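Hi,

I'm pasting everything inline rather than attaching a file, because the server keeps stripping attachments. The sequence lines come first, and each chain or strand is labelled.
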Amino acid sequence: MTDNRKIDPETGTETTGHSWDGIEELNTPLPRWWLWTFYATVIWGVIYTILYPAWPMVSGATTGLLGYSTRAEVADEIERVDLSNADLTESLVRVDLGVLEENEKLHRFAVQAGRSVFAANCSQCHGAGAGGVVASGYPNLLDDDWLWGGTMEEIAYTVRHGIRNEEDPDARFSEMPPFDWMEEAELDAVAHFVRSLSKLKHDESAAIEGASLYADNCSACHDENGLGDRELGAPNLADAIWLRGSSHDAIMRQLNAPRMGVMPPWQARLGEAEVRAVTAYVHGLGGGEADVGKSEVEPTQ
Amino acid sequence: MSDSAPPLFAAREPIFPRRVSGFFRRLKWVILILTLGVYYITPWIRWDRGPNLPDQAVLVDLANRRFHFFWIEIWPHEFYFVAGLLIMAGLGLFLFTSALGRVWCGYACPQTVWSDLFMTVERWIEGDRNARIRLHNAPWSPRKALLRLSKWVVWLLIAVATGGAWVFYFADAPTLAHDLVTLQAAPVAYVTIAVLTATTFIFGGFMREQVCIYMCPWPRIQGAMMDPGTLTVGYRKWRGEPRGKGGVKRQKVAAEAIGSGDAVARYGAAVDKNTAAERQSRSGEVLGDCIDCNACVAVCPMGIDIREGQQMECITCALCIDACDDVMAKIGRPRGLIDYLALDDEPPTQPKESAEVAGLAETPAGDVAGASQPSWQPKPLWQHIFRPRTIFYTTAWAAIGVALIVALFIRPEIDMTIAPVRNPTYVTLSDGSIRNAYDIRLRNKHGEARDFQLSLVAESGLQLALEGAPDNLVEVPADTSRLQRVYVIAPPQAPAAGQQRSDLRLWVEDVISGERAYGNTIFNGKEDRNERSEDAG
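And the predicted assembly:
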C-alpha cells in the first residue's frame, strides 16, 4: 500500500494520522492566496537585500545596488537646509555684531542657530541651561557678571580664541600666582578682607590687617576696591557671584593654589557664522551687555 | 474533497431597488439636496476678516493651526470646543435614535445619501429594477458595456467631486481649485482626493448596504438605544396577515368586529369609511391587507423584507412605507400597513386570526374583545418623542451646547501661558539679587498687531525685565502667538529672594483695548537659606 492517507469522514479532509484521545488532526492545506502571498514576500525579500544595504559583513554591510544610506539622506537634508539658509548665514558673517539685534530676522535666526550650537558644543561644561557648574569653576553665562566682558564682540572673541589654551596664540590669558609663600595668618587675614568686600561675614580685625596685604599683593589685578579687571580676566571680588565659592575655606584654597579655567578656541571648529550665532544666543540669555557697557536688561518696577 | 467544504462567507446578493414615490421619498430628496448642497457649497462662502486673515467662511487651516468658522476662530489650545461639538453630535445621535430609531442611517448618513445618489444615476442610465435585473443577468454585449461604462464614469465624476470638495475645507478654495487644475497643488491634496474618490466610488457604487451591515459600528450601538417605545419602521402584522392574493368579496365588515383597542378601532373606522371589503383567498380563507405584492421588498435598498419584523439590516429609510401606501391606495385600504410605529403600540395578539377562527361575521364584537381585554394602549406621538430618556439626552445635549456657547463668549481675546525656566531655577546677580526666568507665550487673537504691556503686582517688591524689550512692551503680530523670555528679579532684601518658593502673578494688558489677563506662577528663591544667613554679614 503506497497510499496510506486517511480521510476524515466528517469533513472529507485528509488527516495527519495523529490521534489524541481519539481526536484526529486534520491536515488542512494552506489557502492558495496565503501561499502565494508568502512566496511574494520571499521574492520581495531577496530583491530588497540586493537593492538595499542588508547583509552584515566583517566590516560594514553590503551597500546594495541603489547605494542608499540613511546617513547620506541626512547629509542631503542638512545640505538642503544650509542652502536655504545661505543668505542669512552670509549676512550673519558680515554684520556688525553691535547692531545685530536691530535686524530682527537675522537676530532671531542667529539665536535659534546658536541654541543648537550651544547644546552641541558648550553645554558639556556650561550646562544645558548655561547655568555653569560652581563646583568645577565653569562660569554661569546667565548672570550679569563677566570675567572677560559681556558685549557681543567680547563674547565672540572669547568663543573664537578661548581662554588659557595652548592652541590659539590669541587666547585670552591671565594667571593668578599662588600665594603659598605668605604666612598662614596673613592669608587668613586676606581672606577675611576679601569676604568683607562683598559684605559677607568676616572677622573685622583680621580684615583690617588683610587690607594692607591686599593692597600690596592683589589690587594690581583685582582693583583696590575689589572690582576686578576685565582686561586681565580678574574676577570682581566685591559682588555676590563667586566662580569657585565664597566660603572662607574656598578663598583660602584659591589663594594657596589658584585654579584657573581653560576654554578651547572654537573658531576653527565652528566657523565664523556659528561663532556669531552662539554669541548671539549667549548674549540673549539675560546677562548680555550693550556696547556702552551698560546692562541690556533694564530692571523696572 | 475539500471542494465540499462550506464557503467561509456568503456571496453578496445583488440588490436592485425599484423606484418609488411618496412622502418619505420626497423628504429624502430634500435632505439629499440640502446635505450635499451644504457639503459642496460651504467652502466657497466668503467671510471678510480683514487683510491678515483668510476670507473663507469655513476653513481648517492646518498649516497655521487655526479653525475658522464664520466669525468664530478656534486655536489649537481651544480644541475642547471641537471635543464638545463631537460630544454633542454623539448625544444628538442618541437622542434621535431613542426617539425615532435609525433616522440618521435612513436619511442623513453620508453612506445613505451618496448611495442614494449613485442609485439614482444607476436608474437613470440602466433603467428601473426589472431592466437592471435583465442587464445584470445578460451576457456581456456592447450595449451592456456601454451602459456600465457610462454609469461608472458618472459615478467617478461624482466621487471626484466629493473628494475634491473635501480638500477645499483645508485651503483657500478658489486658489486651491486653480492649483488643482493647473497641477500645482500640494501632493497631499491629490492624494486626499484620490483616497476619497476611491472610497466614494467603491462605497457608494458597489458596497452600499454592506458598509452598513458589516463595516459600520453605529448600527450595533444603536440597538442599545432603542426600546419598544421608539418609533421605527415596521409592518402591522395583525393587519396584514394572513397575506395573499385573493378576490374581493363585497361584504362590508363592521368596524368593531375587526378587533379591539384604539389603533385597531381607528383602522376599522378607516376601512368603513373607505367602504372596502373583506378579502378572501380562492380557498375561502379570510385574508389580511397584505396582498403579497412584494413592493416593499422591491424598493428596499437593503434587500430585506420588512414583513419579517425588525432586523439589523433595516436603516429605516421608510421607502417601503411609500411603496406600501401606494398599493393600499390602489386596493382601497387605509395607508399604514407598513408605517412608523412603536412596538408597544401594536396589539400583542392578532385579532384577525382569532376573529377568523371564531367566525367573525357572526360573533358579536363584545365577545372577542371581552375574551381577552388587551392591556395595551397606544400612546400619542408626543409621548414617544418626550420620554424620560429623550428628555435626559436633550438636557445633556443642551447643557453642553450652552456651556460651549458661554465659553465661546467669555473666552479672552488675549491669552498668556507661563513656563518657568527651571534650568537653573534661579540666577544670582552681581548685587546679590535673585533672578528667575520665564518663557511666556502671548497670544493675539485680533486681526491686527497688538502691543502687550507686561507688569507685576507693584507691592511684591519684585522687578520685571523683558529680553529685548526695555519698556516691557511686546508687539505680537496679528493672529499669532509670540514666545517672550521674561525675567523677574528679587532684590537681596526682598522676601521672595530668601524663600524657596513664593507665588507670583504676571499681568498682561492689551495697550489698545485695555483688556487684561493674568497668569500665576512660582518664584524660586535661593534654596539654601543656611548658607545665605551665614554669608550675610
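Residues 250-260, 350-375, 532-537 of chain B have pLDDT under 50 and may be disordered.

If the labels don't parse on your end, tell me and I'll reformat.
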